[in-house]
Amino acid sequence: MTAYSFSPSLLYIDPGTGSMLFSVFIGVVATFFFLLRAAVLKLQLLFSGRKARERDKDRKKFVIYNEGRQYYNIFLPVLKAFERRQVTVDYLTSDPDDPLTKENPFRFVRPEYIGSGNTAFARLNLLTADVVLASTPGLDVYQWKRSRNVGHYAHIRHGTGDATLYRLFGLDYFDSVLLTGDYQKEDIRTLEEQRGIAQKELVTVGCTYLDVLAGRIRDMDGERKQAAAGKHEYTVLLSPSWGPNGILSRYGEKLLDPLVASGMHIIIRPHPQSKKSEAQLLERLEGKYRGKANVEWNYDRDNLSCLVRSDIMISDFSSIIFDYLFLCDKPVVYVNAGMDTRMCDAGDLNKKLWQFVTLEKCGIELKSEDFPRIGEVLRGASDSKELAQNRAWAKSQAWMHQGEAGERVAEFMISKEKKEGD
Question: Which of 195, 205, 303, 316 has its Cα between 20 and 30 A from that of 214?
Fold first, then answer.
């Protein structure tokens, strides 16, 4: 008789497989739930003659989902608009430190922490609501599945750049997309036609979080003028994206050595994802420049202070470039590190993206061969009349309806609920 040995290691499941199995489990549970619920609702309709949805006591009219603290300002103007209308909205958040779960100043906003990751998706997949608004892409692509008991899914853009830089199929299965500028519509329509999917409702509402930040900058004007009256060091803000094509990862010391040696005050503000994905890189670079009086590393959740304090920005393809151009109206120097769009919706478009074309008009390109003389390049980066005009043009294209976004989003959601109720 052959003896077989059994190793406990055979029971190990790697995290990726575990996540996939959990998603399958959630899908099975959700399917069973929907089948059972559909049967119950059909019986109710058969015996009562009333609409099933009218008997659904758990149904919410409006739901807003916030996946993280960094997106809070996207939804704040919308929540304020609902409050002004005295219309109740359920605010579900995956941020355990969300300000609204600690202290809620609203009467008509009902905040609730629902966990993060698969825990949150399990809750979202079983929602019963008329209208759901989220900045999270990938509906019906990854773990987040459409609930049969949600009438309308709306995606709100959390950047003024191209709407096709999400991972593949990021916007395909939403019922509507709320845009910051009309220019974003064309590429979405092109992808819909290429993929043979239904056309979404595309509505330009403006940019909620820029409205918030613009208001805060106005409130800071007195502080800025006082600071300008005193001694001010010429300050460079280095704001890289993350990943192998980000300028910190790609160039590292080759860029930082001459930049630090220039004597200008340098604020290095890595992308939030870098702390997770590039921790060793950041640890090495911070260690090398520790003790340099003119180097400041900034990891604040809020980037506004850095934007206001700096005189010029160096970046790559990070969307923060447009926040800086539109809010601060200051020059940008960009390093064309390249961006691989093959895993993005943009990879299916046979064209150069709007934000890359616009950056060439609004910014000053810094080539790697110019790094040794970077101090000279930055000091000579004149804020020309042409650059200023191009910034104004780009702002008018990408940030429409300035100051009105919260109201427009709330109006849209309410209009969708009324149609669902017909």
Answer: 316
